[in-house]
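Friendly challenge for the regulars: who can give me the structure tokens for this chain first? No prize, just bragging rights.
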Amino acid sequence: MTATVEKRRALLINVAYFALIIGAFYLFMRFAFWPLFPFIFAFFVAMLFQKPLRALTKRVPIKRGLAALLMTTFTALMLIGIIALAGTSVVSEIKGMVDTLMQTFENIPDFINQAEAWLLNLVDKLPQAISAPLAVNISDLADSLMTAFKEGSASELPPERTSLLGFDFSALLKPLSGVISKAGKVPSILIAIVITFIATCFITADYEHIVSFIKRQFPAKKRETLSKTKALTMSTLSKMCKAYCLIICITCTELVIGLYALKLIGVYGGSYIFTIAIATAIVDIMPILGSGTVLIPWGIGSLLMGNIGLGIGILVLYIIISVLRQYIEPKLVAGQLGLPPIATLMSMYLGLKIFGVLGMFILPFTITILKVLNDDGIIHIWRTSRSIANNGDDPHSSIELKKLSLKKKPRKEQKK
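First reply, four minutes later:
Bragging rights claimed.
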């Protein structure tokens, strides 16, 4: 009876402990993350600056504070230059893409007619008893879509609604108003950037004193655990960043080469190849999504529009990218870093619902770090196969041992 009570008490204590940690994480992400973000980012950058800073101060006889200021200034200027050069070309290409999309809306009647003809041709190959009612339904659907499109584009909508060629875009008013309200906060954003720059200089110069102060607040055992956690987290983060940056570059290169090849053979007549390649490569590294989110609808839409060559070319390009991704990613990203697909999907959904768009990236990454720390034995949140095997209470291993013991036969003593 006492053992049962102790087990229940331990369970309640563990549940309360984890609930407290989850509650603290929620409160921090909800209310404290953005106000503290300049200092968190500055601390992270200062951590990355330590090795080059030590090398610089050894070779050049200057003070650590001046070296930190020069390194931070040089990095900031380099980033500003890259963003300015890339941003100018990307913004111009995005503007051109928006104009092209607006013109595409005008071709929707042609798209409906082509889709109707393609479906009727496909249905015509079926038996008469099946094809006749299907053909009637397809024609009725196409007529209703065409009528709705014409009525929507010809009707006069009230001024409070935003529409374009029969499509109601009033749902975009809320996001646009949010963008406008964010634009009004430009001065506060500039202040945050200046604070981040100054904090990076100070933390980079005094990084060792800050870290030693933090370590002194913990007992000796906790200090060792903290150092291991930091080393493993930084190692995991470095591996993931390098791997996914390389995957982005590879996917982007494949798309550029593929689209230019389609353009050379006369199948693809559009522009904005670099913008499409960069956007698709970024979508490709997102959990669950992948490059198919962009390429599959594009390929199928091209087939329905009658552009068979482009549709087949885009779908073949998607297959090539997917095959290479399946081959490259396991070699670049260690298998133990990944989460099961259901855990990734759940963490993305919960992150989006609780913390917004940023949570889609932060929560899966946080759970990945926790998994790595748990697998390495630094923290103990859930039991792993390694810990079960070490404790000797793996049910599979015990079954195997029983089988082996049954197979063993006692040795017969040799007769003299």
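The two ends are 57 Å apart (CA to CA). Residues 338-382 form one domain. Your move, everyone else.
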